[in-house]
Amino acid sequence: MDDGTARRLARNEAFFRKVNEAIERGQWPGEETAPIAFRCECARMGCNKLMVLTLAEYERVRANAKRFIVLPGHELPELETVVENQTGYVVVQKLEAAAKRAQATDPRD
Fold first, then answer.
1. What average pLDDT score do residues 4-17 get?
2. Which residues touch 59 (CB under 8 Å, ≥6 apart)?
3. Among 92, 64, 94, 65, which residue's Cα sits nearest to residue 79?
4. For residue 84, what pLDDT is reported?
5. What pLDDT score was predicted for residue 28?
6. Counting beta carbons within 10 angstroms of the beta carbon of residue 38, is it exposed (0 to 12), middle (13 to 18) or buried (19 or more)?
């Protein structure tokens, strides 16, 4: 994968992570265990799929800036590795240059 493609994919993922951060901010205190629809944070152009997680589950993933939630089958093995399989979603962790980009674009930093 060339560097320009990798940068474009990283921008897509960072955008969807920002969308999910806004979804999270819109929740009321005390709703940590309520199911919430989050956007798939994959790099696929046009992906608008949703998956259901609780705030606590999302926060557990977001504790690591290199990790993203994606639908099963939306992984990109050349940029990331699956670190968790959950019902309805997987957690991927970015590798090498993709990991550095993920950290650099983390809206929490």
1. 74
2. 24
3. 94
4. 96
5. 57
6. buried
Q: Is the pLDDT of residue 94 over 60?
A: yes
Write phi, then psi, for 12 (nearest 5 degrees): -60, -50
Cβ–Cβ under 8 Å, residues 52 and 86:
no
Phi-psi region of 55 (alpha: psi -120 to 50; beta: other; left: phi over 0): alpha
Three-state SS sequence of 63-103: CCCCEEEECCCCCCCCCEEEEEEECCEEEEEECHHHHHHHH
Q: Is the dihedral of CA 96, 100, 101, 102 positive or negative?
A: positive
The residue type of 10 is A
**Tens-digit pLDDT profile for residues 19-71:** 777 666 665 566 666 788 899 999 887 888 999 998 889 889 999 999 999 99
Assess contact for 55 and 31: CB atoms under 8 A. yes
Q: Which of 39, 107, 41, 106 minimizes the C-alpha distance to 76?
A: 41
